[in-house]
Amino acid sequence: MINRTISEIAEMIGAASSFAEETANLRVQGVSKDTRNDVAGSLYIPLIGASFDGHAFAQDAFHKGAVASLWQKDHPNPPQDVPLIYVDDTLLAMQQLATAYRKQLKVRIIGITGSNGKTTTKDLVASVLSTTYKVHKTQGNYNNHFGLPLTILELDEDTDFAVVEMGMSGRGEIELLSQIAQPDIAIITMIGESHLLQLGSRLEIARAKMEILKGLSPDGVFIYNGDEPLIEQVKAEIMLSGNIRSIRFGQSKYNDYYTDYIRLGEEGTFFTVNGMPDPLYYIPLLGQHNATNALSAIAVAKVLGVSEEQIVDGLSSLQMTSMRIEKLTAASGLTILNDAYNASPASMRAALDLFDGLTGYKHKYVVLGDMLELGEEQDEFHREIGARLHPEHIQGVYAFGSLAKAYVEETGKRFPAGRVHWFEDKSELIGHLADKLTDQDVVLVKGSRGMKLEQVVHQLLEK
Q1: Boundaries of each Mur ligase N-terminal catalytic domain copy (predicted)?
Q2: How far apart (Å, rounded) are the C-alpha atoms in residues 133 and 119?
Q3: In whole angstroms, how far apart are CA 188 and each of 108, 220, 263, 297?
Q4: What pLDDT is attached to residue 347?
Q5: Which residues are annotated as a binding site?
Q6: Residue 248: is its pLDDT beyond 70?
Q7: Which of 108, 125, 218, 259 could hold 184 in an S-S bridge, CB 3.0 to 4.6 Å?
Q8: Contact 290, 325 (CB under 8 A)
Q9: Matching CATH number, 326-462, of 3.90.190.20, 3.90.280.10, 3.30.230.10, 3.10.150.10
């Protein structure tokens, strides 16, 4: 984590300061934004949100051991007799501090964005690189204008690589994150339909994702899904440095890295690359789409000199962030595929394709929630997903949410009566489904984060 004196931090963000000369050389170790966590020794950053203002807790931060605090100039009544660094905007100052700190480090950064697969790819890349280097990765959902600067400021000075996730909801957001992180390698996993509500078209989504190149090192590496023509289209619109190297991955044999043989195992996926029978890679994740995500990690590893043996070990020992098609076993023996973190048409298709291919279960059920932020075509997208559900593969469909009615309307055209259900109360859904389940069954739970379908998963685990 950042370790600088108070005066050095003030200089890094070009800020005025208010502290006695004898405290100028006090060292700050790390930053904190929440006094409910450990703030001892840190720089407290009082961020301002829609329903909170961290300035109200600055005095508490000092009581708990913070060494110094930022203070926004337009806020009255600053704490007295404590080291304060005055800034115009505390969020902007945190971003400036992260940018300055990143420039002082020798760390190389891999930035990852895309409509789906960001977190999975982040975890895959970090796992492979960790076999050879000291690696830090984005924790949880720290992938926005708050989280990415905090991730940078968590880096130790001897970190070899940082793998950072970059999320967005509109234009300009990825560019900001890329300019802060200054990645050496940029990855775009895919272009989907998420954020159509804000951006209007997949082409505009592609343009927003391609902003990751704004901060890419002039001699950096751009790794992207070569099966997506929109990336190529937008790439042609951008004047890239002649020294930037491009590497494509995907399912087509025209890519630099493509999956060949793919086989689903009990707990994960086996696959080979570029038509070569050896090595046989394994990831403890289910689905062809995850094998495709793994290709970008293999590409990164090859660029950075990780041995083939270490790549194989890194992929097979992956530790995943939760709620990305996480295979769980309930107390009853029921199998649950928890994919409740997010949902878009692309990720829903991938999850259902995986689910269709699963064998060895007596009955298969799906619990599907709304897919959010899809704009004017949201009903059409939900109907398309409903049309993909087939009674020969799935015993029962359980839909939750107002938009999810479209699943039911489509599936009801093909499923026998009594096998398709819609609920507006999760407790009723859980009770109805739980009565049908046995230890020989499997349930897929998937929906947008705002639907909070992890509550269904937690309840089923206890049944």
Answers
A1: 29-102
A2: 20
A3: 18, 14, 25, 12
A4: 85
A5: 114-120
A6: yes
A7: 108
A8: yes
A9: 3.90.190.20
282 beta partners:
270
Numbered residues of the known binding site for ATP: 114-120
> What CATH number labels 105-316?
3.40.1190.10
Q: What is the pLDDT at residue 52?
A: 87
Q: What is the pTM of this model?
A: 0.81
pLDDT digits (tens, 9 = 90+) for 418-432: 899 999 899 999 999
CATH superfamily of 3-87: MurE/MurF, N-terminal domain (3.40.1390.10)
- DSSP assignment of 418-434 equals TSEEEES-HHHHHHHHH
Q: Which residues pair with 399 in a beta bridge?
A: 368, 422
Between the CA of residue 359 and those of 77, 306, 333, 393, 429, what are the distances in Å? 65, 35, 16, 10, 25
- What residue has token string 């060292």? 27
Given the structure tokens 């800034």, which residue do they identify? 87
Per domain, the residue ranges of the chain are: 3-87, 105-316, 326-462
The rounded distance, in Å, linking the Cα atoms of 139 and 182 is: 19
With 0-12 / 13-18 / 19 or more C-beta atoms within 10 angstroms meaning exposed / middle / buried, residue 24 is: middle
CA dihedral 236, 238, 243, 244 (to 10 degrees): -80
DSSP 138: -
Across the beta sheet with 16-18, what order do the strands follow? 16-18, 84-87, 68-72, 43-44, 31-32
